[in-house]
Amino acid sequence: MSTQAMVLLAKTLVFASLSTLGVSASSALKPPIPYIDVGACPFECCVYRKWHAERTVVLFDHPDGKKVSQLTKGEWVQALNGETRSIPLRVVATRDVPEAGIHPGDVFYVLHYEGELYWLIWFKGKTFDAEAGDVRQPKTAWWAQVKRADGTVGWVKAGDGAFSNQDQCG
After folding, report:
1. How sure is the predictor about 61, in pLDDT bands with cuts at 50, 70 and 90?
2. Preceding amide of 42 cis, omega within 30
3. Which of 23, 37, 18, 162 is nearest to 87 (CA)?
4. What pTM value is reported for the model?
């Protein structure tokens, strides 16, 4: 079998495999919407530990869920874990992004900021940490699972100055 025939067979098998999973070959190259990065802590030196509420903060049963309670200003909670949910931002590369093998003209997606000028990006079905932001930014929401002193566990929107003690560098 020729190399060209083997490549064609391989592409056909990949397409057939994706089709049986209900995924088209083109959608396999795009990130899901929303993109959920479980465990993300989206800035340099971000850490899940005891956090101090700087204002009243709504407590939800799950991200984008229903309100179950609220934290009071000054309350300490244990941040257990988190996730960043984003609407991926489509970008056409204007320069090489060597960390991801991106070249001018390639399409990639910016998922969320990670800190120190690095972004989590999606290219051809894989994620990369890269200096590949855009002047535009994707719409993101950072959620954290927290535990109150009484043992109640819930989810909070963790950004926008709602909490202090999130930064282990200062």
Report:
1. very high
2. no
3. 37
4. 0.78
